[in-house]
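Subject: mismatched residue count in predicted assembly?

I count 218 residues in my input, but I want to confirm that the predicted structure covers every chain. Input:
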Amino acid sequence: GQQVMQIPQYQHVQEGEDFTTYCNSSTTLSNIQWYKQRPGGHPVFLIQLVKSGEVKKQKRLTFQFGEAKKNSSLHITATQTTDVGTYFCAGGQFYFGTGTSLTVIP
Amino acid sequence: DVKVTQSSRYLVKRTGEKVFLECVQDMDHENMFWYRQDPGLGLRLIYFSYDVKMKEKGDIPEGYSVSREKKERFSLILESASTNQTSMYLCASSFWAIYGYTFGSGTRLTVV
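Triage response: the counts match. Full output below for your records.
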């Protein structure tokens, strides 16, 4: 299947610090989706990006889709303890990255 | 809100048993999916279905089969459970990919 690589695998930050996770594909993606999974929970859809160079914001979260549509990033400004969880990207159809597990230290 | 319901939250089965995992969605979605989630491996697609009686293999279909006799229900079958099938199984549905997937709460299966 299509390979979607995600880095880093784990990230620990102090509350208030910023956080970024990156998603990379070897092939051009038709779209990219981002999901959040809280500990013990299931993935919840956050957003989809479709256009080359697209940037979307949800409060403190900023999502970008690369110009070549092969990479994407999720940036959280001033993390809070409620941001704890694993963030997944999903490229094209069906294929999820391995996820980035975010720990926020109060 | 779309609801995707998985029949069991936790299951323990013996090696060699036939196991059925049931998933029901209530929003008339065409697409349904089965993933398994393992630490460090993310979500891996087992099977998906675009319509009733349709099924397509994902990345890791070996040892699994599926059934979709009604639009709202998508079943995952482990023909003869093995210990390497111990995992979290997640069902999802979508109208079209543009709206994202709605996941069920998952079934944590342990095969002993």
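The two ends of chain B are 36 Å apart (CA to CA). Marking this ticket as 'not a bug'.
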